[in-house]
């Protein structure tokens, strides 16, 4: 259960979800119809060792990420949202934005994986332990970022705008913000405060790409906690409460936006349905908002 001021590293609590998601990107990216691939995710799994190395190398056939009830749909979720936000960032730099901020970056590899125009600066914010693991893993593999990359080691519950500015962030330049896989780990009030801060730091022309998930119905919570150890651990880490709708929050403040339901987006991509009726896909929306 989450508590005020709780802590974690790459292998515990919220930090471990970065490895779980990276492993899902590895597995989902191997599907014949996968719309995205993340070759760096395998490096993270092997560097973490244990169950993660075994999983990416095919030595744990009974892992939760391989089950039809949960795992296959979750793999598809991660690959689809990866494609959505890859395209979101490509559109942002095509529009001339050269400043990118990834909040709770985890094991995001886009600074290394995507083709960035010259002059692009990518700021990655996360806890020091998570960024250290990523840096050490990619340095050992002799991988180099394809944009100017700044690690901002800070907990988002602290004064992260101060840390971001100290790393060179320019609030007068348009920014492409990425808020992927984060909001469910924040309280509703903390989510709104995050949006307020992002809006205050956003120059005209800035964009925000956001993943939002509606609360799980109580019957789904009961089913997950009863049948799925991994799912039960996950439910204990999220704030499964009603919260502000992303599109409405930004629209009320003059931003223009669009959104797509994850299940519809998966269908639009032409992906073959995975698993036995994924629990969460219909609850998730992928959102892009732009400040005029």
Task: Give an overview in words.
The chain has helices at residues 13-28, 39-48, 50-56, 71-94, 110-113, 128-140, 160-166, 188-200, 218-227, 229-235, 246-251, 262-268; strands at 99-102, 121-126, 148-153, 176-179, 207-213, 256-261, 284-290. With 292 residues, the protein is of the alpha/beta class. The protein has a 7-stranded mixed sheet with strand order 3-2-1-4-5-7-6, with helices on both faces. It starts with 12 loop residues before the first helix and ends with a strand. The mean pLDDT is 90.
Termini separation: 40 Å
Count of strand segments: 7
- Roughly how many Å is the radius of gyration? 18 Å
Mean of pLDDT: 90
Oligomeric grouping of the chains: single chain
Helix content: 40-55%
Largest sheet: 7 strands, mixed
Helix-strand makeup class: alpha/beta
The total of helices stands at 12
Give the overall shape, derived from the CA principal axes: globular
Low-confidence stretches: none
Q: Gist?
A:
The chain has 292 residues and is of the alpha/beta class.
Write the layout of secondary structure elements.
Blueprint: H1 13-28, H2 39-48, H3 50-56, H4 71-94, E1 99-102, H5 110-113, E2 121-126, H6 128-140, E3 148-153, H7 160-166, E4 176-179, H8 188-200, E5 207-213, H9 218-227, H10 229-235, H11 246-251, E6 256-261, H12 262-268, E7 284-290
Parallel strand pairs: 1-2, 1-4, 2-3, 4-5
Antiparallel strand pairs: 5-7, 6-7
Helix pairs in contact: 1-2, 1-4, 2-3, 2-6, 9-10
What descriptors fit this protein?
292 residues; alpha/beta; seven-stranded mixed sheet; 12 helices; globular
